[in-house]
Every structure is written in C-alpha cells, then in structure tokens.
C-alpha cells in the first residue's frame, strides 16, 4: 500500500510540504525557532484564495484530531491524525456569499460557524460526518441553521453551560447575542445585551478566580473596540456590566484571553502597531478585583508585526502575530510582570512589518501538541515544538552518528564495542530499518529513500539518537 503522501501527490498537482525540522533557523522556507513544520496544505488545494480563522476538534470516539479552517467562501475540514500526511476532507460552503471574516467554534461533536456574509446566521455542522469520508474532498451540507441574527464577526462558546455568544452581530447593536445550544441541532434565542455597545470578540467562562464575589458566575470579558468590558451573563434575561477598563495608546481593542487561574487578561490592540508605530504590544490586565480591574504591565514583542489572536494554555501564550507568524511566550512569571518569547514559526516570509498579512489565528489545544496556523495566503500550516534530546542521547557518548543531518547515509561508530542492533523509526513509530547483528564498529545505513524529516535511531534497545534526513 502506498504511503498516503505518495497517493496525494500522485492524484493532485498541488505541493504539500511535510515534516521539516527547524534547522539553523528555517523549516520549509519559513523562519523558525524551536518549532518544526509538520505539514502544509496550500489554499489552492481547498479551492480558495484567502484563509482567516481556525479551530480544532478531537473525536472522543478514537482521539483523532481534525483542523477546522475558515476560508472566505466556507469552512474546510482536515484530518491531522497523521500530522505529516494530513487529509483535506472537504468544505462546508458559506450560507451566504464570501467574506473576509468567518469564525467557527465547537461544542461537543458540533461546529458552529458565523460570518460577516450578509444574512449568514449560524451554521451547525455535525463533526462526526468526518469519520467516514469516501473519496475526499467532498462538499458538506449544514445540519441545522440559526437565523436569530444575520451577520456576525465572531462566535464564542462556553462549553460548560452550552451557550453560544454571537458577537459583532446585526442584533443588539453588535453586543453579545445569547443562543442556547444544549440541543445543538435546535438552538434557542435567549436574547442579548446591547448596553455595553459593539463587542468585537469575547471570552466567556464560569468564573473561578481570585474575586470570590463572582465565584461560579458566568462572566463575559468583551473586547469592545474602545475598552474591555466585564459582564455577568449568568442570568440571560438580566445581564449586568460589572466594570470597564481602557488604557493608554488605545487604537482598537481587539481580542483577549484569560490565564487559567482567571487572574490575568492578555489583550491585543489590533491597530496600535499600525497607527502608532509600536512594536507588538500585549497588554496584561490584573483582574484580582473584577469591579476594579487594573493594567498590570505591557509586554513588547520582538518585531513590529501587528498582533491578532492570542490563546493561553497552561503557562504558555500562543499568539498569531500576523506578519511575524506564531509567537510562543512563557507566562509563568506573569505575576512578576514578565513574559518571555521562547519560540516562533513565521509563516510570512516577506517581512515582519505591521499590517494585515500572515497568521490570522492559531489553535494550540490538541493533546498531541500539534498547532494549527491559519495563514491568510499560505493556508493551513501545522507545526509542533521541536523534540528535545533524550537523556539516553546525552549520555551515550560511546556511540557516534554522522553526518546529521544526512541526505544519503548515516554512519554509526562505537568506541565501546560492537553494535548489536539498530532500528530506525519515524515519528509515528513505524519501523523503516532494522538490523539485528551489525558486524563491525563502524556501520553505514542507507537512508536515501527516506522522506525529509525527523527520525529516531534506537541502538541496542537502550540508546536513542534523533536523526534528520535532509
């Protein structure tokens, strides 16, 4: 049976780049630091010319991971269970026309899609359809439709309460629009909140932070163009503004995300780099007291690129930084006013200037560690943190492998005696080479037929070496 990548290349004319380690600051033509390229699917494969937002879904039945890629004319679904050989399964066309802005989130086994397409409403799609797709790519149909609003800039879902919040909609003056999705195929309009004005993006959570006055309440943190708004939306019939906060050099309050302890809110202003000439700026608010939020500090990034969407996972902040691509920051010392960039993968090779080019969004929540980057022109890009050297490799000084990286063959030398067994596996654990008895202290292994990427050489069942095929 042919490898999937070979089948794809034989059946199509598009270029699909796969499994390229970050070496000497580049991977597959992209600038990088400590993040490897797993694979890429260009927009042409998805019959599109522009990408925007992205999200992900993990099938609870078998743990398979799927990327959800928003495009100007619909939503693409990609099977990334084999991250080196992703499969473009097909597309759900827009309910209206095309639009630069489209957004999708998930609840259970359903995706909910909104767009600024006029009259688009909210599409509901059963993700379990992705389990059995014959002869991909296919055109999918929506399973239900909600028309309680027309266009919407974004959608937020609180999976704990099964409520979707349309924001920037044609209803409620653009304020949050409440939709009960406890029965996903039969969404129910439960009103909205116009008092705080237009909401561009939001984060909604059952609050469990330091302000015990609001413990257990459903709180919406809105990025409302000119301020951050904190709203108690527990009672959908009577939502209440708790507080608002602005900041210096305010240009456009775009999007923010809470730390997992609900103490700090990391905000991006979409236009301060463009209009004021600032380097990438992340504002960190202290929400110890929700009635009296304060600005804790501002973090300045490494480039002049415009920040876009940022997400927190543990002590790490993953920022889609437009022309600077994915930037990864350590926020473990955020309480002390410190954030530190620890890696990046730059999908916009032309420059790192301010403006609306490059990475629109990222999705860092897959258990596998694979991270989706939706780049406006590069399309779907999948990356993963570079694998660290194992303890056995550091201590195995008696075994030498060279050259590394290699293109044709690798040489094994042992200073301590004969090598009894050598096995080479790929990142999925597939055995590509195995020899039980090697006959000398120097052995040559042909890897010329391997695809470019990362492999692991296991020696005598105890020593592991990472090798790179270039």
Automatic annotation (TrEMBL):
Taxonomy, superkingdom: Bacteria
Keyword Iron-sulfur set for record: no
One cellular-component annotation, GO: extracellular region
Signal peptide: 1-18
InterPro entries: Choice_anch_B (IPR027589), Haem_d1_sf (IPR011048), Secre_tail (IPR026444)
Alphabetical keyword list: Signal
Record keyword Signal present: yes
Name of one Pfam family that matches: Por_Secre_tail
Segments forming domain Secretion system C-terminal sorting: 401-468
Entries under NCBIfam families matching the protein: choice_anch_B, Por_Secre_tail
Name under which the protein is recorded: Choice-of-anchor B domain-containing protein
Source organism (scientific name): Ulvibacter antarcticus
């Amino acid at each position: 049976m042919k490898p999937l990548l070979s089948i794809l290349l034989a059946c199509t004319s598009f270029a699909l780049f796969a499994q390229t380690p970050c070496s000497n600051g580049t991977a597959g033509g992209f600038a990088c630091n400590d993040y490897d390229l797993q694979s890429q699917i260009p927009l042409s494969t998805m019959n599109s010319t522009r990408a925007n937002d992205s999200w992900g879904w993990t099938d609870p039945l078998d743990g398979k991971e799927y990327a959800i890629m928003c495009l100007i004319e619909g939503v693409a679904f990609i099977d990334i269970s084999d991250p080196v050989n992703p499969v473009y399964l097909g597309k759900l066309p827009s309910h209206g026309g095309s639009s630069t802005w489209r957004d999708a989130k998930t609840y259970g086994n359903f995706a909910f899609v909104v767009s600024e397409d006029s009259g688009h409403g909210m599409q509901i799609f059963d993700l379990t359809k992705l389990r059995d797709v014959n002869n991909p790519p296919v055109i999918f149909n929506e399973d239900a439709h909600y028309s309680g609003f027309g266009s919407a800039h974004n959608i937020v879902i609180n999976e704990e309460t099964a409520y979707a919040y349309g924001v920037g909609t044609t209803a409620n003056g653009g304020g949050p629009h409440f939709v009960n999705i406890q029965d996903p195929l039969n969404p129910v309009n439960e009103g909205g909140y116009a008092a705080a004005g237009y909401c561009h993006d939001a984060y909604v959570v059952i609050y469990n932070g330091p302000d015990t006055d609001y413990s257990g309440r459903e709180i919406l943190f809105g990025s409302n163009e000119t301020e951050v708004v904190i709203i108690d939306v527990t009672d959908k019939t009577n939502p209440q503004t708790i507080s608002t906060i602005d900041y210096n050099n305010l240009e456009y309050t775009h999007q923010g995300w809470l730390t997992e302890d609900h103490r700090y809110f990391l905000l991006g202003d979409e236009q301060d780099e463009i209009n004021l000439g600032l380097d990438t700026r992340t504002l960190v608010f202290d929400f110890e007291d929700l009635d009296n939020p304060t600005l804790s500090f501002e973090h300045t990034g490494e480039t002049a690129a415009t920040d876009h969407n940022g997400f927190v996972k543990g002590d790490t902040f993953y920022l889609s930084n437009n022309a600077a691509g994915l930037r990864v920051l350590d926020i473990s010392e955020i309480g002390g006013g410190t954030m530190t960039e620890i890696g990046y993968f730059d999908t916009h090779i032309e420059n790192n200037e301010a403006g609306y080019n490059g990475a629109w969004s990222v999705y860092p929540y897959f258990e596998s560690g694979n991270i989706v980057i939706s780049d406006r022109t590069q399309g779907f890009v999948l990356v993963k943190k570079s694998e660290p050297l194992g303890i056995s490799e550091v201590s195995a000084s008696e075994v030498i492998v060279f050259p590394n990286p290699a293109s044709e063959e690798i040489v094994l030398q042992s200073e301590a005696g004969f090598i009894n067994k050598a096995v080479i596996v790929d990142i999925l654990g597939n055995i590509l080479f195995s020899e039980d008895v090697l006959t000398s202290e120097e052995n040559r292994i042909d890897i010329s037929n391997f695809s470019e990427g990362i492999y692991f050489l296991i020696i005598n069942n105890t020593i592991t070496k990472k090798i790179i095929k270039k």
